[in-house]
Amino acid sequence: MKKKLLLIFSMLFFWTILGPTNLVQAQKVYQIGTDVTYPPFEFANKNNQYVGIDIDIIKAIAKEEGFKVQIKSVGFNAAVQSMEAGQLDGVIAGMTMTPERKVKFDFSQPYFDTGIIMAVGKKSNIKSFAQLHGQKVAVKTGTAGANYANSIKNKYGFKTVTFDDSNNMYQDVITGNSVACFEDQPVMQYAIKQGTPLKIPIKPINKNSYGFAVRKGHNQELIAKFNKGLNKIKANGTYDKIKAKYLGTKNHATPKQPTEDRSVWGLLKQNKDALLGGLGETIWLTIAAIFFATIFGIIVGLLGVLPNKFSNGISTTIIYIFRGLPLLVLALFIYTGIPSLTGQKIPAFVAGIITLTFNEGAYIAAFVKGGIEAVDPGQMEAARSLGLPFSKAMRRVILPQGIKIMIPSFINQFIITLKDTSILSVIGILELTQTGKIIIARNLEGFKVWAIIAIIYLIIITLLTWLSNWVQRRTQS
Predict the structure, then answer these.
(1) In contact, 37 and 93? CB cutoff 8 Å
(2) Backbone phi, then psi, for 46, in 5-degree steps?
(3) In this structure, are residues 35 and 93 in contact, taking their beta carbons and an 8 Å threshold?
(4) Are 52 and 39 in contact (CB under 8 A)?
(5) In what order do the strands lie in the sheet with 90-91?
(6) Secretion signal: which residues (predicted)?
(7) What span, in angstroms and rounded, lies between the C-alpha atoms of 172 and 169?
(8) pLDDT per residue over 284-299, tens digit each?
């Protein structure tokens, strides 16, 4: 009897301790990709929290259906490619449900109806597509607006210029480089209400709908949950509240965002936490990448100076491949290409480190090899004539001299690596450049924000340059 009671109490004890934990663990967490530079559907507020119609809808649905979402800000193109590679479970980013996209993705039921509009400068006289003849028109890559503009450009005789984010597209029209841009109606209306000096001369055309997307044939349970949850939030009024929060209602104008100090100092003060976070990510990326790239580069460089043709060939091939590949292409290949082949996810930060390790490591290998070869060949001959084996002669005689030659190049490569981290924003790493894009999406103060970020980069690079000069003087004295 005592044994039975002990067993019952033990089971109750473990159920009490482990039961709630298991329930929490059982709650599915989905990785959802988005743009976060597409207000009012997705953007970061002044507290650097992701908000917008899309973000609020997916979170409301997740709450209704009992699952969790982790929002990944990777940009529209990177989000779509990452989902195709299996890195993300779904994408909600104001994605128009076109026939071409339906071939590759499974969509939810429509959650927002939209249309495409053309926007021009405040003082522009353009009122029709015919007036675009012989002019340049700005579009955002991967959007329905871009697809529509490209489908009619031959008919009306204009050229398109493609940008990765809305702010740069708007600025191209504002500065007069392009005479117009094509954008989704609610996005353009929101931008104009926030102070963007553009106007809309035509009515919306090519009306379509937004949908939540998953990879073709995958995550059907998530699509079902989304559709079920969407019907629930429409029925209980949550959906209408979300729309009204960002777009207003028929009887009320779009709610104005809280007034912000748009001076450089004001922007710096309001966004200091986000900028410091982005700077911290940039520094961590740089340190980690330099550490692994240095190891990789030294090994490959030493292979290039061994008295062995096979080793020399491996070294030359690695340097040729990774110096020849553009960093952007390499980053996308590692983050989206490899997972699509292997089925294994690679975190964005890890993909960024691997990218920089191979790219920067190839350059380090080249100047390690060059530094060793710059040492007078007579030094090796003299060491060998004294009876030293190749490895010992290399370690004791050649490398100490070669390192003095290499040090300035090492420091310069550190600086280049720091700058190259900005390219990794394409795979969604929230470093300094990506942070700037997110801030600009909210306030559209592109010039001022980029000026702040440029100054931050210049300060760090200046400090590294001083360090380079100091080390160089020390090693040469």
Answers:
(1) no
(2) -70, -15
(3) yes
(4) yes
(5) 68-73, 29-34, 90-91, 213-215, 105-107
(6) 1-26
(7) 5
(8) 999 999 999 989 998 9
Query: pLDDT category, 447, cuts 50, 70, 90?
Result: confident
Instruction: Say which amino acid occupies 117.
Output: I
Domain 28-111+211-247 has CATH 3.40.190.10: yes
Amino acid making up residue 465: T
Short-list 104, 230, 242, CA closest to 222? 230
- CATH number of 114-208, picked from 1.50.10.10, 1.10.150.20, 3.40.50.2300, 3.40.190.10: 3.40.190.10
Per domain, the residue ranges of the chain are: 28-111+211-247, 114-208, 265-476
d(CA 477, CA 475): 6
**205 pairs with which residues across the strands?**
116
What is the Cα–Cα distance from 369 to 359, expressed in whole angstroms?
A: 16
Domain spanning 265-476: CATH 1.10.3720.10: yes
CA dihedral sign, ordered 143, 144, 149, 150: positive
Name which residue leads in pLDDT, 129 or 7.
129
DSSP 96: B
Token couple for 104: 């590759």
Long-range contacts formed by 54-59: CB under 8 A, 24+ apart: 54/92, 54/93, 54/94, 54/210, 55/92, 56/242, 56/245, 57/92, 57/111, 57/230, 57/233, 57/239, 57/242, 58/32, 58/92, 58/212, 58/226
Mean pLDDT for the stretch of residues 221-234: 95
Tell me the per-residue pLDDT of 109-161, one tens digit each, with 9 for 90 and over: 999 988 899 999 999 999 999 999 999 999 988 788 888 999 999 999 999 99
Do 265-476 and 114-208 have the same topology in CATH? no
Single-letter amino acid, residue 292: F
Label the pairing between strands 136-140 and 105-107: unpaired
**Contact in structure between 214 and 105 (CB atoms under 8 Å):** yes
CA torsion 393-395-399-403 (nearest 10°) is -160
The per-residue pLDDT for range 45-62, each reduced to its tens digit, is: 777 788 899 999 999 999
Helices marked H in 304-398: 309-324, 327-332, 338-342, 348-374, 377-385, 390-393
Say if residues 77 and 141 touch (Cβ distance below 8 Å): yes
| Amino acid present at 404 | K
Q: SS3 of 107, please? A: strand
